[in-house]
Amino acid sequence: MTRANRLFLAEQGLATRLRGLAVFAPYVAGGGRLGEYERWLGRPVRGVVDNADETRGWEEMVRSATFLARSYAGKAAHPIIGIPMLVAGERGSLARGAAGDYDPWMHRVAQALVQNGLGDCTLRLGWEFNGNWMPWFAGDDPRAFQRYWRRSVDLFRHHSAKFSFDWCPTLGHKDMVTEAAWPGADFVDVIGADVYNEWWNPRSRDDLDARWHDEYLWARFGLQWHMGFARDTGKKISFPEWGTRPAAAHGGHGGGDDPHFIMRMAAWFDAAEDMLAYHGYFERIDVALAGGAYPQSAATFRRLFGA
Q: CA nearest 17: which of 252, 242, 290?
């Protein structure tokens, strides 16, 4: 049985939110301090999410992916690793990726993963592709994104047929029609969504039920779309990154210390039942719960996801 199957296998009597329990990059040190997070939570996690670096060129991308492969090698938690499709600071393009110009870098990443025993991990290629903040933003050339995605999946599968692939936009209507970047069911195993606690509709500022309804549940390309699209394509769903944000984030549009958001997300995970592959709270920087910045949210999280 592969590591992915062990992670996603339903356990008798365990709530869905716990069967798919992961964490995003518990510390910059990668897997080395995962135990500290698990002691804080009071429960081992079943997966750990992390991203290779897209900010400092191709060589650094490969180096960081290799670091993650070594950090998570031999760990019980299933690795879910974000692989950049382009890097900042270089004049790259999705069309060049689709033509194979970046294959040598991807081959090196695949080799590092397989050599460190991660040939059955989950890869999150070009995450948040629907946001124009990413170098590989798909909205400028969605067909090239599709071709590049399919080429990358074939490349990684050449190294290991056990890799699985998470197609992961940011939740909601960002800078493109999300479905325009769909590469086809044969090239995707899990449909992800990154979800952060923010409000944009004025009534959502103080009305938490309205925030859930307007910003998450029924927003265009929101939670209902996410679930429905996964059902239509026969895929599981995931939430590789989710969390609350400081109230001052994005000009005062962050959710702040909001246990209501934590409870709503937990209930949504449970409602997904066998469709949920995994979810990873973003335990980093100003979103982290373990650092004490959000005491009410942290207490609720530990109650719902801890021992």
A: 242
- Distance of alpha carbon 97 from alpha carbon 115, whole angstroms: 24
In sequence order, the β-bridge partners of residue 242 are 195, 281
Spatial neighbors of 267 by CB under 8 A, at least 6 apart, are none
Sign of CA dihedral 28, 33, 35, 40: negative
Q: Strands 195-197 and 21-24, how do they pair? A: unpaired
Using a pLDDT cut of 70, give the percent of the chain over it: 94
Please write the tens of the pLDDT for every residue from 71-119. Answer: 999 999 999 999 999 999 899 999 999 999 999 999 999 999 999 999 9
The model's pTM: 0.94
CB 169 within 8 A of CB 128: yes
CA distance linking residue 106 with residue 85, whole number of Å: 9
Predicted confidence band at 10 (pLDDT cuts at 50, 70, 90)?
Answer: very low
Q: Residue 184's CB: how many other CB atoms inside 10 A?
A: 12
Residue type, 32: G
Instruction: Find the largest Cα–Cα distance for the chain.
Output: 52
How many alpha carbons lie under 13 Å from residue 266 in its C-beta half-sphere?
A: 15
The distance from CA 35 to its chain's CA centroid, rounded to whole angstroms, is: 21
**Of 267, 296, 260, 297, which Cα lies nearest the Cα of 282?**
297
Q: What integer pLDDT is reported at residue 33 of this predicted model?
A: 81
CA separation for the pair 84, 81 (Å, rounded): 10
